Amino acid sequence: MQLYERGKLDINKPLINYLPYFKLNDERYKIITIKQMLNHTSGMPDVEDYEWDKGISDEGAAERYTRSLNDKELISNPGSEYHYSNIAFEVMSDLIAKVSGMSFETYVKDNILLPLEMKESSFYYPEIKKSLRTSPHIGYPPKVSPIYPYNRMHAPSSTLNTNVLEMSHWAIANMYDGTYKNRQILTPKTHLMMMTPTFTVNKDNGRKIVLGWFMYPYKGMTNYDHGGSDDGYRSLLTLIPGKKIGIIILCNLEDIKMYDIRNKIRDILLSKSSDEISK
To answer: What is the 3-state secondary structure (H, E, C) of the chain?
Structure first.
């Protein structure tokens, strides 16, 4: 969205305008737009194997991943159906690199993480301080996994190393129209565009997809959230802008009911007044 705002790309145009070597085993790939990739309506399938055991970290990983997709077929016509696809997000690592002239990890660090004072956060695992690293726990009873889930080919969907404090900066920026401590990473107009519904995921519960977030009503309040999981890790971020509430749950254990925990915390916070929450 920053690159869109700066005129470096147009999210409504086909991806092949920017990555001409992107190709699937399906002629419909030619009309997939960047916006469709952002809201999971591209028709692309999801990742089946993240190959965490390979620990790939070289600079050429993003382009190699894009070039490796020529045997994939679409699930549906681009723009017609919702199908969650981390493949689409991985390709955007290569897109950002080509459009910005720097790696995805460097671009995000310089233009998002550091301006938001997320100094210890990074999508590039080798630069995370050893003293801040945690160990993934799998199984029951839980045990430390011998494999840490990192593969640079899957950077955009899966490799952010961060902490609750720094994620709170990100939450604040998203509740204040792209601004944190007077540092604006997006204009209010672009941020609103990013947080506006683009496709209905579930008509029964009113769940919609915006650009990267899920949006739905809860007790009369608009909620935005996104959860994640990798081997030995679980995460969940929920925003309730109308109440200026952000709930961040991070855990280095697979066997945890993240949404049940979030729901209880959310109900407690929503039962309190704004003054009580601020205290």
So the answer is: CHHHHCCCCCCCCEHHHCCCCCCCCCHHHHHCEHHHHHCCCCCCCCCCCCCHHHCCCCCCHHHHHHHCCCCCCCCCCCCCCCCCCHHHHHHHHHHHHHHHCCCHHHHHHHHHHCCCCCCCCECCHHHCCHHHCCCCEECCCCEECCCCCCCHHHHHHHCCECCHHHHHHHHHHHHCCCEECCEECCCHHHHHHHCCCCEEEECCCCEEECCCCEEEEECCEEEEEEEEEECCEEEEEEEEHHHCEEEEEEECECCCCHHHHHHHHHHHHHCCCHHHHHC
pLDDT single digits (tens) 170-223: 999 999 999 999 999 999 999 999 999 999 999 999 999 999 999 999 999 999
Query: Residue 66 phi/psi, 5° resolution?
Result: -60, -45
Predicted confidence (pLDDT) per residue in 56-95, tens digit: 999 999 999 999 999 999 999 999 999 999 999 999 999 9
Query: What tokens appear for 262 in the block?
Result: 């979030």
Token pair listed for 38: 């952002």
Alpha carbon 187 to its chain centroid, in Å, reads 19
What the block records as the tokens of 200 is 């209905």
Cβ atoms of residues 195 and 213 within 8 Å = yes
Q: In the CATH scheme, what is the code of domain 2-199?
A: 3.40.710.10
CB within 8 Å of 268: residues ≥ 6 apart: none
